């Protein structure tokens, strides 16, 4: 159900996607505030009521509704994240992908989150430049990302992702020595193994890593086919 909803929404323009989801989140947030105020008012006027059991049941019911509304609020955040991934990895629509990231940055009011979105925007541009074949430009953009502006809970992810794309850029620029220096800095084995096995293929060796079963998207398949072809040539 979620996948179908994501696919349906992803057909819209970047602006329609972001504005539509943000409007729904604002509505849910306003509903949550109203419910909280009504709950507090209800509890205050019925505090000395003789029928306290009924009062408590109503109050608990309101709390349950509030949690449900909050869950929907978080759900829309996840849906937006899924749409962004779908646009990038399945539709391979780089223009819409960057449009969504740019709109998220522009409409954000919280200064701290806005600074984080700016860095995420840069990362998105670095990705797009890499997949567009502009490896030096991609490196230049990735080097300018300030991870101190990214929240701690997202920092490890972006640190590894930035390092990964830097390595991929250096691989395409034939700077094997630089990749060998950098790839040991990964905090996740999957990224390190991926870069290490790509390096082996680039050096003319045979690797079975590219044939392992992993979740695949259209964009990943395209990149994978390139290294599969090289690996095949190395084996023969």
Automatic annotation (TrEMBL):
List the transmembrane segments: 26-45, 57-76
Listed A to Z, the keywords are: Membrane, Transmembrane, Transmembrane helix
- Superkingdom in the source lineage: Bacteria
Q: What is this protein called?
A: Uncharacterized protein
């Amino acid at each position: 159900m979620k996948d179908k909803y994501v696919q349906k929404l992803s057909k819209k323009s970047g602006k329609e996607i972001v504005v539509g989801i943000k409007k729904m989140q604002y509505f849910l947030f306003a509903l949550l505030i109203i419910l909280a105020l009504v709950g507090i008012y209800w509890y205050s006027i019925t505090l000395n009521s003789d029928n306290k059991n009924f009062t408590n049941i109503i109050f608990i019911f309101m709390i349950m509704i509030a949690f449900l509304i909050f869950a929907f609020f978080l759900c829309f955040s996840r849906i937006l994240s899924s749409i962004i991934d779908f646009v990038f990895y399945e539709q391979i629509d780089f223009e819409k992908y960057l449009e969504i990231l740019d709109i998220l940055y522009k409409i954000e009011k919280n200064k701290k989150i806005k600074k984080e979105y700016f860095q995420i925007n840069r990362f998105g541009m670095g990705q797009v430049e890499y997949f567009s074949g502009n490896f030096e430009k991609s490196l230049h953009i990735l080097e300018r990302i300030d991870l101190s502006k990214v929240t701690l809970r997202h920092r490890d992810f972006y640190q590894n992702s930035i390092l990964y794309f830097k390595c991929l850029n250096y691989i395409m620029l034939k700077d094997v020595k630089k990749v060998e220096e950098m790839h040991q800095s990964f905090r996740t084995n999957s990224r390190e193994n991926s870069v290490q096995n790509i390096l082996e293929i680039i050096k003319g060796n045979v690797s079975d890593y590219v044939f392992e079963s992993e979740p695949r998207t259209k964009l990943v398949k395209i990149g994978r086919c390139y290294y599969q072809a090289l690996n095949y040539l190395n084996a023969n």
